[in-house]
Amino acid sequence: MQRISSLAACREFGGLVACTAGVCARKNSCKQPAAHRQWDGPVVRPVRAYTAAPGRRLCGRSLVFAGVKHRLFCSQHGADGPEESSGRRPAISVVGIPDPITWIRCKVIMFALDLYFDVNSEEFERGVKQALVHVSNKMSNGRYHELKGIVSTEMLEYVEKRCGSLTDAQRKQLGVQMDDIVFVLPEDISVVFDQYGRKFCYIVMRFWILSSHEGPDDPEGTKIFKVGSSEDGGPQKKIVTAVYEFHRELTRGASSDWTVTTVWHWHWKLAE
User: Fold this and answer.
1) What are phi and psi for residue 226, nearest 5 degrees?
2) Residue partners of 62: CB distance under 8 A and separation at least 6
3) What whole-number percentage of the chain has pLDDT above 90?
4) Largest CA distance in the chain
5) Is 162 within 8 Å of 156 (Cβ atoms)?
6) How far apart (Å, rounded) are the C-alpha atoms in residues 272 and 258?
7) Predicted TM-score (pTM) of this structure
C-alpha cells in the first residue's frame, strides 16, 4: 500500500517535469497540521469567520483584490499579473517525495469539498499561488496595511512583528514571483463545526520556492528538490518553503471569501 501511494504521489511531479524547463525528473491531526512543524507562530482557530472586504477573494468565479486594478486572483488565463517573472530557472532535480499518506488523505478531502461545497481544487491551487505572490510582495515592501481584510487581524500583527525583526535586505527577499513557485501541496485540511451548526474549512498549503537568500538550507526543500548551479553567474538559488493556511466558512449563504490565517516563510529563520 505504501508503494502504491508513493507512486500516486509521484504523478504530481510529472506535471512539474512537463511544465518546467531544465527540471529532472505526515499524517497529523487537524489540530496539529504537519506544516506547523517549522512554523513557530500562533495557530489561529477563530470561532467566528474572518471575511474579507468585497472583492478580496482568494478563489471563486470573479476574484480580484480591492484596490488592485485588474489583478485577477484565480483561474483566468493571464491571471498572474505584472508580478510574474520570466527569468529562466536553474536545473532542478526531484530527489524525494512528500509523505504519500498525507497526500492521499488531502486529495480525498479536497474531492469531498468539491462534491459537497463546490470548492474546486484546481481553482483553489491557482488562487493560493496568487495569494502567496500578493501577500509576500506586500510584506517585502512593508505595505502591511494593504493586507487588511486578506490576512486575519491576529496574523497581520504577527507578520508585522516578524518582518520588523528583519533587515531591509532580508525583508526584500520575502517577495515571491509566480515563476519562483516550484511546487505546492496541501499538508492538512480541516472542516470544523461550531455549536451553532456553522461549518468552517482550514486548508494548510506548503509552497516550494526558488530563492537566492543567504542563510541555512531549508530541510523541507532539500529533501524533495536539488537545485543545479546557476548558469548565468548570478547568486546560487535554493529551494525554500512557505506555509500558508486559508480559512473559509462553508455554511450555506455565507461569504465564499478565503482569508489567510497563517503566514510563515523560511526566511524568518534568518532573524532567529
Assistant:
1) -130, 130
2) none
3) 43
4) 59
5) no
6) 30
7) 0.72
Q: How confident is the model over 107-159, as pLDDT tens digits? A: 999 999 999 998 999 999 999 999 999 999 999 999 999 999 899 999 999 99
Cell of 259: 482569508
Single out the residue of 36, 34, 16 nearest to residue 24, CA to CA: 16
> What's at 260, amino acid-wise?
V
Q: Which of 246, 270, 250, 244 is nearest to 259 (CA)?
A: 246
CA–CA gap between residue 57 and residue 59 (Å, rounded): 6
Q: Which of 61, 106, 57, 123 is CA-nearest to residue 259? A: 57
Pair 216, 195: CB distance under 8 Å:
no
- Please provide the DSSP assignment of the chain as one string: -HHHHHHHHHHHHHHHHHHSTTEE-----TTS-GGGGS--SPPP--SSPP-PPTTB-SSSSS-B-TTSTT-B-SSSTTTTGGG---PPPPPEEE-----HHHHHHHHHHHHHHHHHH---HHHHHHHHHHHHHHHHHHHHTT-GGGGBTTB-HHHHHHHHHHHHTS-HHHHHTT---GGGEEEEEEEEEEEEE-TTS-EEEEEEEEEEEEE---SPPPHHHHTTEEEPPPSSS-PPPEEEEEEEEEEEE-STTS----EEEEEEEGGGGGG-
User: 214: which 3 cell numbers?
Assistant: 543567504
The answer to whether the beta carbons of residues 162 and 106 sit under 8 Å apart is no
Per the CB < 8 A criterion, the answer to whether 260 and 132 are in contact is no
Q: Which residue has the cell 486529495?
A: 107
